[in-house]
Amino acid sequence: MTNIEVKTRVKQYQIKIMINSLHHLGTLVTKVWCARQVAVVTDTNVGPYYAKLVTDELTAAGFKVRVMTVPAGEESKSWSQVQSLINQLSAAHFSRSDGVLALGGGVVGDLAGFVASIYMRGIALIQVPTSLLAQVDSSVGGKTAIDLPTGKNLVGSFYQPDLVVIDPAILVTLPPRMLAEGYGEIVKCAALVGGDFWQSLHQITSVAAILPAAPDLIAASVAFKARVVMADEHEQGQRQLLNFGHTIGHAVELLADGQLMHGEAVAIGLVQVCRLFAAHGLAPTSLTSTLKARLMAVGLPTELPPIAPQAVVAVMQHDKKVHGAALTWVYLSAVGQPHLYPIAVKDLATWMGDLWSVS
Amino acid sequence: MTNIEVKTRVKQYQIKIMINSLHHLGTLVTKVWCARQVAVVTDTNVGPYYAKLVTDELTAAGFKVRVMTVPAGEESKSWSQVQSLINQLSAAHFSRSDGVLALGGGVVGDLAGFVASIYMRGIALIQVPTSLLAQVDSSVGGKTAIDLPTGKNLVGSFYQPDLVVIDPAILVTLPPRMLAEGYGEIVKCAALVGGDFWQSLHQITSVAAILPAAPDLIAASVAFKARVVMADEHEQGQRQLLNFGHTIGHAVELLADGQLMHGEAVAIGLVQVCRLFAAHGLAPTSLTSTLKARLMAVGLPTELPPIAPQAVVAVMQHDKKVHGAALTWVYLSAVGQPHLYPIAVKDLATWMGDLWSVS
User: Fold this and answer.
1) What is the distance in angstroms between the CA of the first residue and the CA of the last residue of chain A?
2) Which of B93, B97, B324 is facing A95, going by the closest CB pair?
3) Which of A177, A235, A318, A339 is catalytic?
4) Does B317 contact A at CB distance below 8 Å?
5) Distance, in angstroms, between A143 CA and closest chain B CA?
6) Which residues of chain B from 22 to 61 reach within 8 Å of chain A, CB to CB?
7) Has residue B76 got a pLDDT over 80?
8) What φ, ψ does residue A330 adopt, rounded to 5°?
9) Which of A20, A55, A274, B293 is positioned for an S-S bond with A288, CB 3.0–4.6 A?
10) Do residues B287 and B293 lie in contact, with contact meaning Cβ atoms separated by under 8 Å?
């Protein structure tokens, strides 16, 4: 088992990465929670596979479990699901001493985390991410969120869990497309870190190669992310580096209207931001092809879909990462050498124009 | 001007108490905020009096102001108002670098504070409380909330403002009933603190006597509350003392269905909790009449309205202050001598029964 310790200003907790950890969940949870009611929030995809195992584990450990299932998919990151879950907690008389366990991918983690953060001004939370993307990404850092029609993750909170349990064994039930998606996030982390982590990706020449390497790749990604988050909990400095590939990625994801998964959009964003900064002379051209090769090895998309440049720019102007009149980009001058680069919102269209002229 | 410094784990800010501080709001705000968009959230009672002054002050200081008005009254602490305000912020392209200024009583402070805490995972907040109750109570401590049909303040966050500006001069526009309500909260603080603060209340023999004493009474109450909050930001220990009178108060308020103001319900709660603990031999009987005299001097109610004991108990079982199977009460063994006292939820009905038998 890999244990990664996260210390924030308000909380200290562990991320446990272990094959079959789900089969020891009761024991793991009793180390951080005394007996209480637990709302296991899951979705219609994950629930049928693991809700019973989790319920049995927690019940055997003395917890009173109530499973709350939301429809699978990004649409559940909505006000109506927040209200529905909160009404269920209230109807079941959940008190401040009870807890929420998020069992699912990023959507469930974001939604259940947000609900836990605002019900009675915050009740205890444990994250059990079940997708590769959620295991390497959204379960670490305390970000919770729901979407608005005007953009993703526009409402949410920073809220740290008491424990994160990651079981790489359950990735076998993931469709290949979702494995590849999560791997895109691992490529992002490795490109930011460089060194051995980056070198280790050369063994991943297909989606099938991800599974056996998953425990190590997850541990390396999570350890990196935990380091960054500890240094900058509220995303005012270094943590912005984690947005590498997300500026274009978020916009492309929104405009693709459900046709691209988050990790796929980020894969496109990673390659395109490298290309953009290469066009501006701030990054070597070779970096674009290097990154592209790693992502294409598992079949991830790297080229922009046919969308109007103006539409991408318009979406970016509404990005949460806009601070005042500037949008802060992340680029690499080499693998392992990330930098922040603010661009005035009014100059975005001109600056981005180069992207379409060179691609 | 009285300056009270509040230091929490995540933020340090000042509470400024000064006659006519609203006329210097621009200058005060520029000390904590650089130029940005500001959403002034107010309600249909307060807006007509002060929204223009606040807008002029902020505009002259270089801020871009947008006034957002909600209907006056507790009903605005609702999901629909949260969504409406967030949609307005999003439509106006508010970014993480912009801010919310809450201009109003407790409802506006709770609602606008909650919105500020979740929009883009938290944007800057300034509290300008305009009712006496909000000035002494809800603007200090970082509690934000909305209500659910099942209870008050069941959804919310702990979110600290960058600044709190209190102008006792604007209390002249308050109806006497609201002045008395806020004074009830001052009596609560003074009873917890004791000493000179408590003694100073003997000069308040009518509602009219509140206004000239307001700056000192507010300063003493806020200083006390700030001390407690600094020691226990997330209400796990000492901060629970501030719930003195609220256990019965909240239940009575809910059951009175809008007929009692919050401070009136708390006044009843203060006297009844003293009576209850006296009946159980934990407090002197004289304390009940002492407290009652201070509250009745300004016409506050102190006796239970005709409601069924079972109803009060049923509501209490759903109180946020229920931890596991116990509800933690606050009682005084003497003025200035508060204590916490947990009672098992299953014993509440029996324990409370004494209240009706002795009153």
Assistant:
1) 44
2) B324
3) A235
4) yes
5) 8
6) 36
7) yes
8) -120, 130
9) A274
10) no
According to the annotation, is B173 in a ligand binding site? no
Of B211, B307, B228, B237, nearest in space to B265 by CA: B307
Give chain A's domains with CATH numbers: 2-173 (3.40.50.1970), 176-358 (1.20.1090.10)
Of A226, A214, A239, A262, residue with least CA distance to A107: A262
Is B23 annotated as belonging to a binding site?
no
In angstroms, the CA B10 to CA B12 distance is 7
Determine, for residues A323 and B122 on separate chains, whether the beta-carbon distance falls below 8 Å: no
For chain B, positions 92-131, list CB contacts with chain A under 8 A.
93, 95-97, 114, 117-122
Q: Is B326 in the A-facing interface, judged by CB distances under 8 Å?
A: no
Interface of A with B in 195-234 (CB under 8 A): 234
Distance CA A62, CA A40 (A): 14
Q: How many residues does chain B have?
A: 359
Q: Do B87 and A117 touch (CB under 8 A)?
A: no
- At B202, give phi and psi (nearest 5°): -65, -20
Which residue stretches of chain A have pLDDT < 70?
A: 233-236, 320-324, 354-359
B359 pLDDT band (50/70/90 cuts)? very low
pLDDT tens digits, B104-154: 999 999 999 999 999 999 999 999 999 999 999 877 889 999 999 988 899
pLDDT digits (tens, 9 = 90+) for A340-357: 999 998 888 888 876 666
Chain B residues near residue A118 by CB distance under 8 angstroms: 114, 118, 155-157
Burial of A343 (0-12, 13-18, 19+ CB in 10 A): middle
Q: DSSP class of residue B134?
A: I
Q: What is the ipTM of this complex?
A: 0.88
Phi, psi of B358 (to 5 degrees): -95, -20
